[in-house]
Write a structure and sequence with these properties.
The N and C termini lie close together (12 Å). With 109 residues, the protein is mainly beta. It has helices at residues 23-26, 72-79; strands at residues 6-13, 35-40, 51-55, 62-65, 85-94, 97-107. It has a 6-stranded antiparallel β-sheet with strand order 1-6-5-2-3-4, covered by helices on one side. The relative contact order is 0.32. The radius of gyration is 13 Å and the shape is globular. It has a single domain (6-107), classed as Alpha-Beta Plaits (2-Layer Sandwich). The chain contains 2 helices and 6 strands.
Length: 109
């Protein structure tokens, strides 16, 4: 999807990266420009609009979440069946926090 025309719906940081086991070891595989997947988590006990951010691969790595308070529209679009994805735009370590910036994308046909 990274090469297909798309509308950027949201630019944000991925929340909760410090809580993802194995992410420090996986981080070198993450490259700016790579496609990411979004997955609704409607049964979340913490956020009614929870959306997971994962790598887009058969052995998908769960990276974290769209930030609470900025995720409702994306969650509603996913619930309605829109084929949303994401793209990693930047990564950097800040102490123990992996700072991941992404764009949420809607394909344009």
């Amino acid at each position: 999807m990274a090469d297909a025309p798309a509308l950027v719906l949201l630019e944000c940081l991925v929340a909760g990266t410090t809580h993802r086991p194995g992410l420090r070891d996986y981080e070198p595989k993450l490259q700016p420009g790579q496609s990411l997947a979004l997955e609704r988590e409607p049964a979340s006990a913490y956020d009614d609009w929870a959306v997971r951010v994962l790598t887009d691969a058969p052995d998908a790595m769960w990276l974290g979440y769209l930030p609470e308070g900025r995720n409702e529209t994306i969650a509603r679009l996913l619930d309605a069946g829109f084929p949303l994805s994401a793209r990693l735009t930047h990564k950097a370590w800040e102490d123990e926090w992996l700072h991941l910036e992404i764009e949420v994308l809607l394909p344009i046909k």
